[in-house]
Specification:
The chain is α+β, with helices and mostly antiparallel strands and 289 residues long. The protein has 7 helices and 16 strands. Helix content is 29%, strand content 27%. Helix 3 crosses helix 4.
Length: 289
């Protein structure tokens, strides 16, 4: 595998929230490559076996993604989220497995296989960092939300999503990001690292490992050439908020109480005028503060 030494040219956090441009890089990586910084491996770009490419393609064309914002960072996404997800106090009352695990059982099983493959590749090329990631994850996240010996808890399938420059603020600190690409009939869509002046070509069946929590990165524009064209990036990571999750059974008990209280409050406020509801007197009278 080819090795390239990279050096940070300048801080480009000013680019966060903007579109990656070709002028932001002068090196395009298109073959299996190890990237080093001061002699230490900091990123990897490699390809997966053909059989797994077909697996990734099947998920890409059959999943039905939602449009939402990523937990922790607020970055807009069009994605299908599998694995475990943390509570956020608004839409998700408790930590749990995602609804996609049940709604798309075959895709959940398939993306878990992809996660295992990427994990094994990661372990092979970056054994020390892999061991560190596993130790961090296992020390902070309850075993109920872990998948075997994988160093991540959550798997995203981002469909035709061109994410602007960002850093992965919602990730567990100190743990690397792992991204796998499946695509057809598409040109462009490089993963650009403007502070170092390079980009991964993000070809079909290639994956990358890098520190998304520290490094500014984003996806360049794509051109969809054919009617059945698509670009799907599979992202494997652990949400930082997962460290606040209680064991699964405790979370389920908490969910029961949450919805019981929510439904009780709905029944108590049914038929109230906006003025009456805003007064909060119903809370005082019913002891629901």
């Amino acid at each position: 595998m080819k090795t390239i030494e990279i050096k940070k040219t300048k801080d480009r956090k000013d680019l966060i929230g903007t579109k990656p441009l070709k002028e932001h890089y002068n090196v395009l990586i298109t073959e299996p490559t190890i990237l080093t910084k001061d002699g230490k491996i900091v990123a990897v770009y490699d390809k997966i076996p053909e059989s797994y490419k077909e697996l990734a393609k099947k998920i890409s064309v059959t999943t039905n993604p939602n449009r939402s914002k990523r937990q922790g960072s607020g970055v807009p996404t069009v994605s299908s989220v599998f694995g475990a997800i943390a509570k956020n106090g608004v839409r998700i009352a408790t930590c749990r497995g995602t609804t996609r695990n049940k709604d798309e059982k075959e895709n959940f099983a398939a993306i878990t296989k992809l996660a295992k493959l990427v994990s094994d590749k990661y372990k092979e090329i970056l054994p020390e960092q892999y061991k560190k990631d596993v130790e961090i994850t296992r020390s902070l996240v309850e075993a109920d939300y872990l998948f075997g010996d994988l160093p991540f808890t959550t798997f995203n399938a981002n469909k035709n999503q061109l994410i602007k420059y960002h850093i992965d603020r919602g990730n567990l600190k100190g743990v690397m990001s792992n991204v796998l690409i499946s695509r057809r009939g598409v040109s462009g869509g490089e993963l650009v690292f403007p502070e170092y002046g390079f980009a991964f070509a993000q070809q079909d069946g290639f994956y990358s490992v890098f520190d998304g929590e520290k490094e500014v990165h984003g996806v360049a524009d794509c051109k969809f050439i054919s009617k059945d064209a698509y670009r799907c990036s599979f992202v494997f990571y652990t949400l930082d908020q997962m460290k606040h999750c209680a064991p699964y059974l405790e979370e389920m008990e908490s969910e029961k109480k949450h919805y019981t209280k929510k439904n009780n409050n709905r029944s108590k406020t049914f038929g109230m005028s906006k003025k009456e509801f805003a007064s909060n007197k119903w809370q005082e009278e019913n002891g629901t503060e």
